[in-house]
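Hey everyone, long-time lurker, first post.

I ran two proteins through the pipeline my lab uses and got sequence/structure pairs for each. Pasting them in order. The first:
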Amino acid sequence: MSARYQVAGTTAAEISASIESGIRSAALAPGDVLPPVRELAARLAVSPATAARAYQELRQRGLVVTAGRHGTRVRPRPPVASRRSALRPPTAPGLRDLSRGEPDVRLLPPLGAHLAGLAAAAGEPVGYPAAGVLPELAEAARERLAADGVPATELTVTGGALDGIERLLGAHLRPGDAVAVEDPGWANLLDLVAALGLRPIGVPVDDDGPLVAGVGAALAAGARALIVTSRAQNPTGAAVSAERAGELRALLAGRSDLLLIEDDHAAELARVPLHPLAGATPAWAFVRSVSKPFGPDLRLAVLVGDETTVARVAGRARVGAGWVSTVLQRLVLALWRDPAVAGLVDRAAGSYERRRTGLIDALAGHGLVAHGRSGINVWLPVDDETSVLTALRDAGWAVAPGALHRIAGPPALRITVSSLDEAEIPELAEAVARAVRPTPTPGFTA
């Protein structure tokens, strides 16, 4: 814990409020370690039970995470606004940053011409009664989903994939319920599950998606929802294969007590076929975002599912945010309809595939086995994340620690290839090999 910040309070509520205040003021940073329960209790002259209750409340709200012998830490993305929440710590000067997990801005379709077209065609302003899902957007979305074998009779629109998943979990589950999530998995999703007060159950993943045995174990442990990434899984690049989809469908068939959520965030960027699970359970939803192929600032996702699930999500939106901007919907529709934009997205998909497979092959040349069937990330298992991260930083490279994505899985690194130029791949692979297997320092000789 930061030596600059002293936790205060004599009750569990006061202690948890003090720690939350420290997070808001940025005196406690993401990843900071909090004192052990007994040490904090002695420092504040309270019982260990009082300190433990304070930590429990913070865990239930998703502000901290307890990791066994590693102690209690502030979560990487605690659900409370910090005074510096908009300021991301910059990468050290001179480092090549491959840690962000974002698409290459150089390959995103330009929006200027389509925005100008919308402005020229704008009619009367839209009022509250007329707002909602545009029929023409819904029709186009259904056609695109049907081409991938996803039934889309019931449809709504949300403010991105994570917004859709949050609404789905909120509509079906309550704090304390268990959710089966991929392990390793999307860090933002793990933080969301914690913020909602839900209990994550990790499901191991291989190149073909969630392991059937892991899903079965999660169901036996009481999971009330299962979240599966269809393709370009973050961080491993896994994609659900046809065989794995069939096995999972057989396992999930008839599970009326389970909400199945599929996240196809890569959508048009994925160069592997989609094998959806949609409809395997009575309660299901399929979410497809436009952010990765068309731009992170386009906060829109199409959500389809069974009638009850979609109705719950749409109904909850009506009493909250209301709807996704119809201006944004028209912009997305214009992008979908433009063959030139489709060509740019296909070009980006090909570029990501060359860089991803190029890096995996280069690492294999050094005897390192990495993973990445699809998407923009490469997942590299290592023995010790900290030592490899440090060695890579000293060599001029910044990558993401696997700890941000893991629940109980083994250590690894996530390398995002979206900003990696193909000419840099040999140099990076060599630096990674040296970091994973450093040359021993010569010892003394007689």
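...and the second, right after it:
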Amino acid sequence: MRTLTLRQPAVAAKPDRSFWLQDVGAEAATEPLAGSGRADLAIVGGGYTGLWTALRIRELAPEMRVVVLEADLCGSGASGRNGGQVHSWFAEIGHIGAVVGAEEARALCAASVDAITELEQLQKQGTIDMDLRLDGWLWTASSIAQEGAWESALAMSEAAGVDRFRPLTVEEIERRTGSSASYAGIVEPNAGTVQPAKLAIGLRDLALSRGVIIHERSPVIDIAAGPTCTLRTARGTLQAEKVVLAANAWLSGLPELRRHLYVVASQIIATAEVPETLDRIGWRDGASICDSQRQVLYYQRTPRGRVVFGRGSGNVAFRGDFGAKFNRSPDRGRDNLRELHRVYPALRGVPVEYDWAGPIDCVPEHVPVFDHLRHHPNIFFGMGFNGTGIAQTAVGGRILASLALERKDRWSESGLVGLARRKTMPPEPFRYLGARVVRSAIRRRNDAEIRNERPSALIRFLSRLAPGAGE
């Protein structure tokens, strides 16, 4: 019997939690695992992926005893600290097609559209109050180098017979965003924003109401693998015939997965509430907005008039090992603030009331992967959403549920299943050192291109070494 040791989380102190979690006063609602227990299926991780998987399994096999073990409180990881942007997979149709082929890529993208509709229905029915606003997702350019970043996705979507995007005029962008920084782009109308913590907590409460057992504040220390697995926490043990690992970046603790996984940090800030200022500059709706930098900016106006402004900061973790330093950046979002003032000069002087950071699980293809561990056919995992997961994890939950239930259907037979076919990362320390060099080059390239200057040949060469990077 082999024991799998899991990476232990550095739980964020309350002041270091995301604005979203602090805004709703999020706390654990269930008791930690204590003593010995048993389940048909155990899920490690109480974020979007784990909760959607639990809900899908209860839909398909309501007789199964499903237990979720969450290290802190549900939504305390990436699910409760992201930028709150809801859009379909059609923006990534090229990346997905490279992994699964054009036909399945179209089907997976369509499934993500269905997931947005499912979120909308959950809100309309009063099941989950998540502040969902489907005012659109704007994919824009604010420099010459960013122009046309969406052309491939637009062409591939149209070739698939899908009219998902609409071009924007410069006047429309300025009217919709309240900023003249971006001047070209497209919009996905049936997309928008959400309050991420409300969604995570709502999924937790929905899962509990449907018979899922959840133990928060129960980090899994290790798993004794076998026909029946034993999951050990500080105060208890849980035996389960099957296990789903839905632990996001913390999966980097397993060497088999770390070969395909790298961990980067994303940094987000939230301003004070300034609704009158935002109204005055014309920024009134709940659209989500991205530019096309290599360290992409993503932002939204909250219903009460805060600006939530995020950026992939580029911090990397040696051996995927990250701790409390990934919960909050020492510079307190200084880089984000600089970019906020570039995009919104009218917000100079508006205080930043929240700043937070956190790890993101990334894979080289920028497309998630699902499978079981190589020597453990009853231990399944899903990872690599690369920061795009609010709608996409609902699809991932279907794949993990079908795998765990050993169903033969479109989900278990998806081209997203299969780790062996995926790219691997260089070994350490070359991975870490190379990542630091490449991320520095990307930062320098961003800074030059946003000024419409041409970076040096060396900077261009190094920045192209990033996983999934093009010219």
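Reply from user beta_strand_b:
Welcome! Quick read of the second one: The chain has a mean pLDDT of 95. Residues 102-124 form the longest helix (23 residues).
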